[in-house]
Amino acid sequence: MPLKPLALLALLIAAPAYAQHDHKHDHGHHHAHVHGVAKLDVAVDGGNLSLRLESPLEGLLGFERAPGNDKERAAVAEMRKKLTDAGKLFVATAAAQCTLKSVEIDAPILDAKPVAGQKSAADHADLDADFLFNCAQPGKLTGMDVRLFQAFPKLRRIDAQVVSGKGQKATRLSSKMRFLSW
């Protein structure tokens, strides 16, 4: 197993620095590329709640290449809009009073121009997104409702990891079990 997932956990523990870090990397080495399966890393550090979502674009869009027509460009715009409004996708414990501070979306293939007939590794493209929330009452932050399944019906499963002051936890989320507690 490559060291990259362990390095990511180390970065998650340092959540404030991690959330501001520039994430330019090779998408092929994060995790197995499985359609309908996303990975969510969560770090709770004081009043900061940092999330990192990695997903094949197919689970979010239905395709994994540069958009080739107006319908696909509209789907990309809608996906970006949903992800940018992350407070509706990741609903933290209300008493914690968390507010969204920043969103970074990295999916270079979506900005590329399609080349007719060209096949490449981009035919299995991923999206990486980082979300930072600040919580006014961090002691009351005990979990969050992950609403990605409603926003992106092609998602079937989310493999989630949480690192907090209470320790580490791994959970498998689905449309029927979408609350992530820690």
Question: How is this structure best described in words?
Answer:
The protein is α+β, with helices and mostly antiparallel strands. The protein has one domain. The protein is built from five helices and nine strands. It has helices at residues 4-13, 15-20, 57-61, 70-84, 148-151; strands at residues 37-45, 48-56, 90-92, 98-106, 126-135, 143-146, 157-164, 167-173, 179-181. The strands form two sheets. A six-stranded mixed β-sheet has the order 4-5-2-1-7-8, with helices on both faces. Mean pLDDT is 83; it is low at 1-30 and 118-122.
SSE diagram, text form:
Layout lengths: L3 H10 L1 H6 L16 E9 L2 E9 H5 L8 H15 L5 E3 L5 E9 L19 E10 L7 E4 L1 H4 L5 E8 L2 E7 L5 E3 L1
Give me the Rg, rounded.
Answer: 16 Å
Q: What structural category do the secondary elements indicate?
A: alpha+beta
Strand order of the largest sheet: 4-5-2-1-7-8
**Helical residue percent band:** 10-25%
- Quick one: biggest sheet? 6 strands, mixed
Q: What is the string of helix and strand elements?
A: HHEEHHEEEEHEEE
Number of domains: 1
Proportion in β-strands: 25-35%
Total beta strand runs: 9
Distance between the termini: 26 Å
Secondary structure tally, helices? 5
Query: Which parts are unreliable, with pLDDT below 50 for 5 consecutive residues or more?
Result: 1-30, 118-122
Roughly what is the average pLDDT, rounded to an integer? 83
Shape: globular
Task: Name the descriptors.
single chain; globular; six-stranded mixed beta sheet; 5 helices; 182 residues
Brief synopsis:
The chain has 182 residues and is α+β, with helices and mostly antiparallel strands. Helices cover 22% and strands 34% of the residues. The strands form 2 sheets. It has a 6-stranded mixed beta sheet with strand order 4-5-2-1-7-8, with helices on both faces. Strands 3-6-9 form a 3-stranded antiparallel beta sheet, with no helix packed on it.
